[in-house]
Amino acid sequence: MIKMRKGVFRLVSGKLKQTLSLLSIFAILGFAIVPAPAFAGSEDASAPVASAAEAKTEKETEKAKADTPQVSVSVRGDGLSVKWKRLKSARSYSVYRSYRRSSGWKLLKSGVIGRSYTDRTVESGRKAYYKVLAIKAKGKKSHYSEAVSGIIYRVYIETGHGTDIKNIWDSGCIWNGYQEARLVIPVCKATAKHLRSKGVYVYTDAFSGNNRNLKWTIRHVKSHDVSVLLNIHCDYRYAPSGTMPLYRYEDQKELARCLNKGVHKYVKIRDRGLVKRTDLDTLNNTRGYCVACLFETGSIKYDNKLLRTQYNAYGKGLAKGICDYLGIEGLGKR
Ligand SMILES: [Zn+2]
């Protein structure tokens, strides 16, 4: 391109001279404006005309750019925050969303006065696109912004048992003064911590003393669109040592498989294998809302020390399992 230019220019400047002399004749005759279109039509002289047109387009592009909201999308809390630079003479903004890049746009919110809007209704784990339009005086509108995309993953880590819906403490299984509902808290905390380090939004009752029970959690899951519900337990004193993720349906089985694999990558513990269960609310009552798994982390008796001391590695393994299941870039080595 650059090499060609010189030659073309030389050729054109020759033509230009000719045309200019022609122009002066036309000017004398009072036809100064007339030759211009003829000039544009000439093939040899197309380069300077194109650059003139380019200059015009550039000007128009600049103008259009100044009249187009510049938008960015990032995770904010449990939603996606759409932000834009203030546009001159804008009175308010309208935000549009689609799950496809170039069609299916839906008005999300109009009359936004500030420079951002957080979409908390966006589906978990699904790439969403946003466009912003500025509204000016007399209903005049700016250009639509470019479509900018974002994705949020929401996960619920349910600490087994704990305070129930009637505000009564449910300890789960007990052995030697240890309570299941307390023993699994550090594992849940670690799982949440590692997920958050990967940008996953985590709901959990692990940091508030296991103060939500399963009924509350299921209600929350149904109204907050999460991708995964992980319900963390440990088994009673007569259970043998080892992990035992419980599932009912095929997608749950795949999640269970990922979780088990994740744990065994970071923790040395026996494996009781995946077990199918048809009687659990965690698996039955979340159907169509998220993919769930009830994970039996081990025996309250035989894995007691491991759960008390290796909770961080255990949580990392569970987080890794969720990331693998959701296709989130995996966690690093311990
Ligand atoms: Zn339990």
Strand and helix map with partners:
Blueprint: H1 2-29, H2 35-41, H3 46-66, E1 71-76, E2 79-84, E3 90-98, E4 106-112, E5 116-119, E6 128-136, E7 148-150, E8 154-159, E9 162-163, E10 169-170, E11 174-175, E12 178-179, H4 180-183, H5 185-197, E13 201-204, H6 214-224, E14 228-235, E15 244-247, H7 250-266, E16 275-276, H8 281-284, E17 291-299, H9 304-309, H10 311-326
Parallel strand pairs: 8-13, 8-14, 14-17, 15-16
Antiparallel strand pairs: 1-2, 2-5, 3-4, 3-6, 6-7, 9-10, 11-12, 15-17
Helix pairs in contact: 5-10, 7-10
This protein binds zinc ion.
Residues 160-161, 172, 180, 233 line the site of zinc ion.
Globular, elongated, flat, extended or rod-shaped: what is the shape? elongated
Order of helices and strands: HHHEEEEEEEEEEEEHHEHEEHEHEHH
Summed over residues and divided by their number, the pLDDT gives a mean of 86
Q: Which compounds are bound in this model?
A: zinc ion
pLDDT below 50 for ≥5 consecutive residues: which ranges?
Answer: 1-50
CATH fold topology of the largest domain: Aminopeptidase
| Estimated helix fraction | 25-40%
Adjacency order of strands in the biggest sheet: 13-8-14-17-15-16
N- to C-terminal separation? 53 Å
* CATH architecture label name of the largest domain: 3-Layer(aba) Sandwich
Query: So how many helices?
Result: 10
Give structural notes.
This protein has 334 residues and is α/β, with parallel strands linked by helices. It has two domains: 67-150, Immunoglobulins (Immunoglobulin-like); 154-326, Aminopeptidase. The protein is built from ten helices and 17 strands. The chain has helices spanning 2-29, 35-41, 46-66, 180-183, 185-197, 214-224, 250-266, 281-284, 304-309, 311-326; strands spanning 71-76, 79-84, 90-98, 106-112, 116-119, 128-136, 148-150, 154-159, 162-163, 169-170, 174-175, 178-179, 201-204, 228-235, 244-247, 275-276, 291-299. The strands form five sheets. The protein has a six-stranded mixed sheet, with helices on both faces. The chain has a four-stranded antiparallel sheet with strand order 4-3-6-7, with no helix packed on it. It has a three-stranded antiparallel sheet with strand order 1-2-5, with no helix packed on it. Strand 11 (174-175) and strand 12 (178-179) form a beta hairpin. The chain starts with a helix and ends in an 8-residue tail after the last helix. The protein binds zinc ion (ZN). Zinc ion (ZN) is lined by residues 160-161, 172, 180, 233.
